[in-house]
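Q: For a teaching handout, I want to show students what a protein-ligand complex looks like in token form. Below are the inputs, and the small molecule is NAP. Please produce the holo structure.
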Amino acid sequence: MSKHATLNGKTAWITGASRGIGRAIAVALARGGVTVCAGARSIAELQQLSTVMKSEDKIVHPLELDVASRDSVDAFAEKALEIAGPPSIVVNSAGLGIWKDIDQLEPEDFDRQIDVNLKGSWYVARAAVPHLKRLGNGHIINISSIAGRVAFRRGTGYCASKAGVNAMSEALVHELRDFGIRVTTIAPGSVQTGFHAQALSSAHHGDMDWMLEPDTIAKAVLHVLSLPDEALVNYYEVRPLKPAKK
Ligand SMILES: NC(=O)c1ccc[n+]([C@@H]2O[C@H](COP(=O)([O-])OP(=O)(O)OC[C@H]3O[C@@H](n4cnc5c(N)ncnc54)[C@H](OP(=O)(O)O)[C@@H]3O)[C@@H](O)[C@H]2O)c1
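A: Here is the structure, written as tokens, with NAP included.
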């Protein structure tokens, strides 16, 4: 077997695949010959992605998924296993951010960010790990954020959730390397997606030209997946070269 990883013929689970970064990763992996099990709540958007990729002879299975619900994660995993077999690549990209002062942020909004960003990534990783262990290899990629390392004002819930993702990922790096399974945290700076309509519009006046493209994060995913088997990238931070517009 080649010392270098090849994507063709592998199966991936990708959460948050209906839009933004997760969708760009789903497209990039499918174009690399991966059978993609694409999860999100917006099934119509996933079906549209599946149809587009089918026109290129690529496989994306649209699967309804709410990562904040353990039952939904279990149902997603069961369905994905049934139609595509065990995954060897798992990408947690589902997430949201809400920027508010602590006395304006509803407790439900704090909980939601922890439930989706942190607990959701943990639920999906937990569902995948027994299959990766049986394979004796595989790669879990958690899309975190620079906010997990460098916290900012009005981001109490989001920064805490992403710091949690970083810590969880790092714990998993150590736990799973003995099984031949790699775990990578990818921590983007600002990326041009709909995420900002909710989280950042007031901070950046709606101007997103200076931000990274979602495809650039997909390229970062392809990069870590393409490294030789002996290499483990635990943390990968990528930020826009241009400074943020104030
Ligand atoms: N954009 C940035 O500047 C930026 C920077 C650093 C890190 N990130 C991180 O990158 C990840 C993707 O963000 P994005 O920019 O691509 O945002 P986005 O365009 O708003 O997409 C968010 C994705 O997450 C999915 N999602 C949200 N809640 C979900 C749930 N409960 N269950 C399943 N899927 C859910 C959404 O699908 P449905 O609504 O259909 O469920 C959608 O596919 C997030 O973890 C975010 O924190 C983004």
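A: Two things your students might notice: The chain has a mean pLDDT of 95. Residues 11-237 form a domain with the Rossmann fold fold (CATH 3.40.50.720).
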